[in-house]
Design brief:
By secondary structure, the chain is mainly alpha-helical. About 60% of the residues lie in helices and about 10% in strands. It folds into 2 domains: about 45 residues, no CATH class; about 100 residues, Aspartate Aminotransferase, domain 1. A 3-stranded antiparallel sheet has the order 1-3-2, covered by helices on one side.
């Protein structure tokens, strides 16, 4: 069983022991379980590195929300102004990710961000094709997408 699954079980156990099945109780139980697992990770090989991954996941979530807010602001501004400044196009993003889960997370992240849409992955999983509403500077967009990919790589490894 993965360390995250153990963390979830500890949070549910906390909720059962306290008799409070609420969101805040789950959060307290999750944090308590996280602390316990962080203390045990030196002695249990299956937990190795788990304490370092959770802050990375939290940072990635905040990064994701910030990217969505920025993209929404750009699209909202474009819709609210009289002249549309879109320049749509399709680009090919060379992938460093090779796992199905990593490529799926990246493709979903791109699709959930307003103004971009994942279209397809090449058969050899080396390229992700993306439609972008604002393709004024292809190199800049590729740099931003590679930044997202590198954060996902850090998250998964």
């Amino acid at each position: 069983m993965s360390a995250f699954a153990w963390n979830l079980l500890l949070a549910l156990a906390w909720m059962s022991l306290t008799g409070s099945f609420t969101g805040p109780s789950f959060v307290v139980g999750f944090l308590f379980g996280y602390g316990c697992l962080a203390l045990m990770q030196r002695h249990v090989p299956a937990l190795n590195g788990y304490a370092q991954k959770v802050p990375g996941v939290i940072a990635f979530i905040f990064y994701f929300f910030w990217q969505v807010i920025k993209a929404n602001a750009v699209v909202a501004y474009d819709v609210a102004t009289p002249r549309l400044s879109i320049k749509p196009g399709v680009i090919a993003l060379p992938l460093e990710l090779k796992s199905s889960i990593g490529i799926t997370i990246l493709a979903n992240f791109i699709t959930l961000t307003p103004g971009t849409l994942s279209l397809d992955v090449s058969d050899d999983r080396s390229v992700l094709f993306i439609h972008a509403m604002y393709l004024e500077d292809e190199d800049e967009l590729l740099r931003e997408l590679k930044e997202i990919e590198s954060r996902i790589i850090k998250l998964l490894h």
